[in-house]
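Retro notes, item 3 of 5
We never archived the inputs for the S-adenosylmethionine complex last cycle. Fixing that now. Sequence and ligand:
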Amino acid sequence: MESENDYDEFAAAYSEDNESNAWNALYERPASLALAGNVAGLRVLDAGCGAGAHAAALIAKGAQVTGIDKSPALVAIAKNRLGPHVRLEQADLNARLAFEDGSFELVIASLVMHYLQDWYPALTEFRRVLVPGGRVVMSTHHPFMDHVLAQGSNYFETYEFADQWKKGGRTIRTRYWHRPLHAMVDALTEAGFAIEAISEPQPLPQARDLFPEAYETLRTKPRFIFFAARTPKSAAALKT
Ligand SMILES: C[S@@+](CC[C@H](N)C(=O)[O-])C[C@H]1O[C@@H](n2cnc3c(N)ncnc32)[C@H](O)[C@@H]1O
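Structure as it came back at the time:
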């Protein structure tokens, strides 16, 4: 049986698709990068960096990027793409991160949080490795969308569900965690972040001609939800 959530098994196909499809290239990445804003000169942690598409875009805008991901195969693709001067490591967001306190001005976590049962450990680590006043930008499954997809019985519960995609003639099995909107907001707040923005963006207009079906879906249904949040400016306020 094929394993679940094993990005190593389909890393190359995932990376190639992610590069130019409607969901990632014309919807998720532009929205996350817009929330990140001006990153020139910032130290950025790309948490769940995958094959490095966000990292490449952030570096092109003048950021100094470090990437971490659970999948060694995706980290290898990112290394190949970004070269030896970019720090890229295999790491699990459920565990303590191998960075000093205050190592980054920005953490970007794109489409990775729905793999985590509990957001608190990852969010408190993001807070720890950020400087006071640092920001996190996250995208994750929209809770309304995944509740419908999962055919869940109770929207207000945090629960795990299975999904599968077809890619390159193969079936890819995944498992995600649904959590209601209030649980996302509460997790950020409990970890010490002040939410600056909750965003439900539209796809880029060029998706209309390139991917009309996906464009119509993304234009009318909530797929991903985006958060921008900030740690307190005073280091004293960061102590738990
Ligand atoms: C949907 S991909 C998103 C990749 C990239 N951030 C993007 O948006 O293109 C999800 C990524 O999360 C990574 N991932 C899943 N669980 C993780 C964990 N516990 N710790 C670190 N990375 C994880 C996967 O290996 C995969 O690269």
